[in-house]
Structures are given as structure tokens and as C-alpha cells.
Fold this sequence. Notes:
Low-confidence stretches of chain B: none
CATH topology of chain B: ABC transporter involved in vitamin B12 uptake, BtuC
Number of domains of chain B: 1
CATH class of chain B: Mainly Alpha
Number of helices of chain A: 18
Largest sheet of chain A: 6 strands, mixed
Shape of chain B: globular
Oligomer: heterodimer
Strand content of chain A: 15-25%
Distance between the termini of chain B: 23 Å
Strand order of the largest sheet of chain A: 6-7-8-3-9-10
Number of domains of chain A: 3
Strand content of chain B: under 5%
Structural class of chain A: alpha/beta
Number of helices of chain B: 13
Low-confidence stretches of chain A: 1-26, 264-290, 520-535
Helix content of chain A: 25-40%
CATH class of the largest domain in chain A: Alpha Beta
Helix content of chain B: over 70%
Shape of chain A: globular
CATH architecture of the largest domain in chain A: 3-Layer(aba) Sandwich
Mean pLDDT of chain A: 82
Mean pLDDT of chain B: 90
Radius of gyration of chain A: 25 Å
Order of helices and strands of chain B: HHHHHHHHHHHHH
CATH superfamily of the largest domain in chain A: P-loop containing nucleotide triphosphate hydrolases
Largest sheet of chain B: none
Amino acid sequence: MTNPSAPTGTASGPGARVGAVDASGMSSPPLLQLEGISRRFGAVQALQDTSLTVRPGTVHALLGENGAGKTTLMRVVFGLLAPDGGRVLWNGAPLAIASPSEALRTGIGMVHQHFTLVPAMTVAENVALGGAGRFDRAQAEARVNAVAARAGLALDAQARVDTLPVGAQQRCEIVKALVRDVRLLILDEPTAVLAPSESADLLAWMRRFADAGNAVVLITHKLRDALAVADDVTVLRGGRTVYTARAAASTEGALAGAMIGAGEADGTARADVRSSEGASTRSPAERTTAHTSVVLALDHASWRDERGIVRVRDASMAVHAGEIVGIAAVEGSGQHELLRLLAGRYEAAAGRVQRPARVGFVPEDRHRDALLLDAPLYENAALHGAGGRRGRMPWGPLRARTTELLARFDVRASGPVAVARTLSGGNQQKFVLGRELDEQPQALVVENPSRGLDFKATAAVQQALRDARDGGTAVVVYSSDLDEVLMLADRVYVMHAGAVREVRGDREAVGRAMLGEETANGGNANGGTGREGAR
Amino acid sequence: MKRAVVQLIGVLLAALALLSVLLLATGHDVAPALAALARGAFGSYYAVTSATVVRMVPLGFAGLAVSLAFRAGILNIGAEGQLFVGAAAATALALPLSGTSPMVAIPILLAAGACAGAAWAAIAALLRLRFGVLEVISTIMLNFVAQYLTGWLVRGPLQEPTKVNPQSASLADALHLPVLLEGTRLHAGVLLVVAVAFGVWWWLTQTAGGFRIRAVGMNAAAARTAGEVAVSRTVFAAFVVSGVLAGLGGAVEYTGITYALYENFSPGYGYTAIAVALLARLHPVGVLGTALLFGALEAGANAMQRDAGVPSVVVSVVEAMLILLIVAADRWSGRLAARAEATT
């Protein structure tokens, strides 16, 4: 409590780098300090010499693009992942956290992006789940009510979780942490699922929680939320800490720049990659001239989920034969639903959708949505179009076609009778892509095509997409890796908060549009993001 | 395939060992009891044709119903009820049709049974698709409803003319399914169940409709997203076809063996059918084999009770244990496969 929580102007200017915060926090040790954390997943270096300092009494915003390492870093703190190297200091003393229960005992709680509640149980039962000993309902409910009241969170301990709105479920998650007396609460994208008024309430609560001498780490890609509530801001990019400063000394523009790497050697190098890619084939302008026909189009299309929340808002876009259109968006912007509208897997609630009879679709979760894992490959190949098939299955020709498909797309399998489960992830993905591309569809919609693939398989999948385009297919690609989108796409649409607009420009312009910034060359923004540019 | 056969033999040996232990534990001599069991099932021409094979027919139809539903990912425990309503529907039509030619009447009776079974299964299908009621629960409940409905029918509208016994009037001789071998109870239903089993197998593996059912059973999300399959419609179809098979079994049992409807018309064929289907690994033709095996077990159980004084429920215990053994064996081999995969 010695450290006043109000943002002070002690940061050394807008561009303050790592270390600026340390200088001011001499009087009391930081609550949590991460030094040189590194963690590798296979070929991917998810965290590299990452540092973070959280002062008591503060809200600390942790920003970064998809895959920047935010969640990975916090999973290290919460004991879900062991780091390969680096130190964790708690109140100035080194600490090894091997499991979430140890983290909770230490005083660190985490609310995950996807809730971990048992829907059929009451709030009190969910809160009591982590505990030991006998379960006394009255006592558990009293405890929840007391903790919720003390924390200023409206929550009915007796309510069944599946009857609660999302905001209340989130409060239940928070209370789950608070009953364990946590001092540091990590919230992973907490406002992604909330309505605007709920978000404001949550941000206000975080402020109060921190003011009481605790600390919050807020993982987000919403710059506005970060600046509205946080005292300190840390930005990760590519697993490294690239920016640390007081929030009061930061602007949305500076943060966005740090997140996407604008103006740094790193960023320009990527831009070069992109332009050289473009040069190796026809230029985008050549590709999208009027003589190619529109194959896929949305005209003021909207889609809402079963809870009535609008996921795609008044979207208009067009995809021509022989081009790759990239979709860039941060997680949860409605891209998942947009792709399914384009592919004909969802029907629009309003507006018009133009699509050919046959649209190939490669969903991101191939195990769940694309494959019969226990069936042979030729049956998996037959799955395409199975909904409309009549009469007998032509297994003989289907087998022969599958054999061809394996050869054409370089799928390493013992043959068409190999069971899908026995293939590696890369070969499964090549197979799924090949199945959808068989017989050259007029349109192809692809979601995160290289997720979980190694370098070689990624290159093969990307080449297959380019070949499809060159063969005249209209291709739509979304990837959570912006660089992959930019590398593949001839044109880019950016989605933000359910709205779609085309963005012409470099990586920086796209990156800023993904974060909701209006840019001069963005042009035809169609609602949903209506606010002024930050600078 | 080879592995499946090895596993089947293993499960059978385990069942035999288990039966022996049960006999010992209940104070019976093992050898004479097992001898009686074998005699009752396979000991004579009459035992084979009139006890074992005859029981294979309803078990086969119900087993086909269960395996088809399970293939679609539907846990239809309701073959018993569908069997009952199938028999009841055939019984209801038997009297009005008693004067007509058997060439016309018998197919109508069988079709009526199939339709009734389908309708009964459709109730569970609608409950699941409209209201999300688990079919495991609804079909078990509907089994009781069907059995008590039968109980009411044979004391009310369908009771025999003298109104003394709680059963229906005997089926006119002309409407009996033809007996295949003079002097036995072996009826034409045996041929029908074999034909239907091969038909179901052909349909599941060779037609688009059958493929959709298997695809939905293996991974409904992939069938919907990658195959653009109408999952709800496919699930409904699977329920209905499953009901057709069980209802047909009820009608065949009525026209081929019992010639009358009564409250204990089925000694739990619909439940035993679950073991029949699982032991056949849901293969329609395999169901014929396992139905024959369970037919033999049940026929033998009767003989064991008669000749060795061993209560026939012992065999029910063995049947139940067989189901557990099959499930355990599947789990076990699945775990072994996973381990093998992990080490490579």
C-alpha cells in the first residue's frame, strides 16, 4: 500500500524501454518479477529472454499480437508450463512454481480465456471444487457470498452456472481465485466475451482490486482497455519483451507500433519478404482486374450466434477467380464465422451471400471438423460431398482417386486404406487440402492452414494454395499468423469486432486496422469500429 | 479382422471360466452342468433346430437394430420395446387379415411390425433432436411403456375371445411363417434374418445413406463441416431403420414361434441384443454369428436348469459379464494401440 496506484509520470518518455519501471520501484520489491524466461515448443521459440515486472497495487497490461507469447508467459507463471530457462521472483525471492495449485498457494490466480466451470453445478460448488475435505453447502455458499461482497462482485452463490450470463460466469471464475486469497490475478482476454457495459464494470473492478494492494495482469489485444485501466504496459512480440512503460506515458499509436514492430529492422524485413513474394508472381493489381469474375461475395451479410450476439456485422466483400484474399484479424473478431458464411457452412441472418455450388473448406481443427480419424483415407475422401450423394458409393473409383490424390499432394501414407489417425499432422492437412482441391473447386476457404505443421509441410500447404489460385480458384485464407496472411494474399481484408473492410498497405497498416485503428488508406470501413485514429 | 477373432475367442474362454467359477460358487458340479448346457444347445438335431437357431432369429433382428444404431453413434437400448410394439402391431392386424391369402397377409403383418418399431424409435429420435433427451434414457423408459402397453392390450382390446388368459388369440394356422424342416420349430424367419443382415451390411458399406450413418457415428462434426451432411436427418433415419429392424424381429417372432402376444413375449431379447451387437463389433453379418452363440447359451441355460438344477439366471450373469469383458477388451486394446503409437 506504500505505492500509490495512480499512474505517475515517472516513465522516461513515450518510447521507454525495458528497465524504465524498475528505477521507480526501489522502495518496495515488485510483487512478481520474471527475468529471462524462455520456452520452446518444437521448432517454435515461444518465449525468448522475456521479462516482466509487476508492481503491487497496479494493473499491468500485457499486450501482443496472436502468438506473441502472452498466454504462454502467463502459463509459466501459473505453473502450467515449465520454462526452459529464466527466473521467477515473488516479492523479491526466487520461486519455482510447478503446478497451478502451488501457484494458488503462493497467491497467484488465473482466469483463462475459456472458462473452466462445471455448467451443471452451482457457483458455490464450482468455487469449492478445488478445495479439500468435506463439502458443506451452507458454509460454501456463505463463503462465496462473503468473498464476492468483499470484492464488490455481484454473484449468486446458489445459481447454477449454466443459467448465468457470461459476465457472471467470469465473476465466478474470479471468485474461485479470490477465495484462495490470491494477490496477483491474471486475466486472459477477459473482455473478449463481454458486452461493453460488462467490460466497463470489469475494468473498474480490476482497478479497485489493485488499489487494495493487489495486482492484476491483464492479457489483451484491446489497446483502449489497456490504456484505460492499466498503470504499466508491457508489449511482447515474437516471444520477446519489446516495450515496457507507464500507461500514462503511452499512446495507442506507440503500443500498436510496438505490437506489430513498426519502424524497426524486424518489421521492415518482413515487409521486404512480402514484396519479394509479390514480385515472384503476378502483381495484385493485375490479378484483380475487372475481367476476372466475382466468385464469392458477401453483400451486407450478418450472422449472429445462438445467444443472439452479432459475430459478423454488415459485411461486404468480393473474391474473384484466381486470387487469394487474406483475412487478418485478432482472435474473436468474427473471422471464424465469416469463413463459414463464405464456405456455406453457416447461413446469413441478413444480407446476401453469393457462392458457387461447390466451395472447398479447410477448417482449422482438422481432427474435429475435417476427418473421420478411425476411417480409411478413401472414406475420408468420400466425405467430401457426402451430404448430397445418392445411391451407391462408387468405392472403386473413389479409391483410385484417393491414390491419385495422395500422389498429387505428396501425402505420405501407405495407401488409400491407411487409417487417417495414423498419418502425421502435416500429411493429414495435405490430405484434407487435397480432398477439397480435388476437381478444382471454384472457391476454397481455408482457416489456419499451417496450424501445428512443421516448416516443410507449411511450405507444401502454402504452395498448394498458390497452385489452386493459379488454376483459377477463388481462395480465401485466414491465418492467426499475420505474416502468413500477408505472404499468401493478393488482397487483404481486415476484420475487427465483426466488421470487414479491405486494407491496402503494408504490414503496419494491416496490423493497426486489426487493432481497430482507422487509417487514412483503409477507406471503406463499414461500421463497428467508429472512432477516431489514436494519433 | 484376425485380431477381432482372437479377441472373440478370448472373451468366450473367459466367459466359460467365469461360468465355471459361478457354478462352483453356487455349489453345483461344473462338469454335468456344462454338459447339460452343451446338450441343450447342440446335443441333438431338435436342440439345434428348435431351440438354438430359433432363438437366434429375434436376437439377430434386435442385434442388427442395436448395431445399426450404435454405428450412427446412437445408443439405442430400446430394441426390447421396439420388439414388443412390432409384435403388438402384427397381432392387432392378425384377426382382420385372418381370411386373406397368406401371400398377402404375412408380408402385411411383418410390415406392420416394422412400421410400429420405427414409430416407437421415432419417439426417442424426436425427444433427442427436439429436446436433447439422451436416447439411453428415453429408450429404456419406452421399453417399460411398450411392455406395459402390451400387458394392457392382452387384457383389453387384443385379449383372446374367452377373456380368461392375459394373452391374444392364437394366430390362424394359415398365417404362420412356413416351417422349414418338418417336425421342428425352424421357420422361414431364419432365412429372413440372414437376408436382412446381409442387406444391412450392403446398405451400410455400399450406399451413400449407409456411409452418412457411419460418418455421423464416427465424427458428427466432421460429417457436418467437411461432408455437408444433414446430421439431424441422418440421426433420425438411423433411429427409424433401427426401429424397423427390431419391430420386424417382433413380428417375425410372433408369426414364427409364439403365435400369440403376451406380457412376457420377449425374455429380454432386446437387452441381450446389446451384447450380441457389441460382441460382433457392430458388424451386421457378425451379428448372425453372435446371435447364434447367445441363442445357444439361452437354449443351453434352459437345459441346464432342467437337467442339472442350475438356475438359468446364471447364464444371464454370464451374458452381462460378457458385455463388460468386451468393453474392457476394447479399452485395453485401445490403450495398447495408443501406447504403441506414442512409442513410435
